[in-house]
Request: fold
Amino acid sequence: MQRLRKNLTGVCLFPKPRRWKLKLAGAGLFLLITSLLLLDWGFVRYRLLDEALAPAFWAGQKVVTLRTAYWILPPRRNDLIVYSRTKGVYQSGKLLAIQGDRIAIQHGKVVLNGSPVPGSPAFGDLSIPQITVPLGFVSLLPNPEELPVRLQLIPIRNIQGKILGNWQVLII
Reply:
């Protein structure tokens, strides 16, 4: 053990650093850096431009998305997403089919892998032949207000993030 020099009053001139203070400072620095990274890269706020997610969200509403949601895990059915078809133009949608799924519209009903999708909008007497979602793509639930109705295939790399919820509700 090293002897510490003491001054005339008996107080150590060079005290040992307190380990708990160093650990606390390191933990605080770690939390600060990770929160800045999440705010900068993780959570993004978007204003919805269309009624594709009605009645849950409406046009003009601000939503929070998690940009890093699909960096590790693949997209899942029924996820609400923000995606871009062209640079700088963001749209929203609900994932209906993932890669490898078969999707069609038969007699106005959306059919996924041979069975009707419950809760999907009706399209009158429209029929669109079955397609298989290719590797690296997802398909969105068609919007009945958009004409002509089509099955949209979106590259996974164009997904900007998974919608977590309404901006005002998450902030409060």
About this structure: The chain is about 15% helix and 35% strand. The mean pLDDT is 80. The CA atoms of residues 77 and 95 lie 5 Å apart.
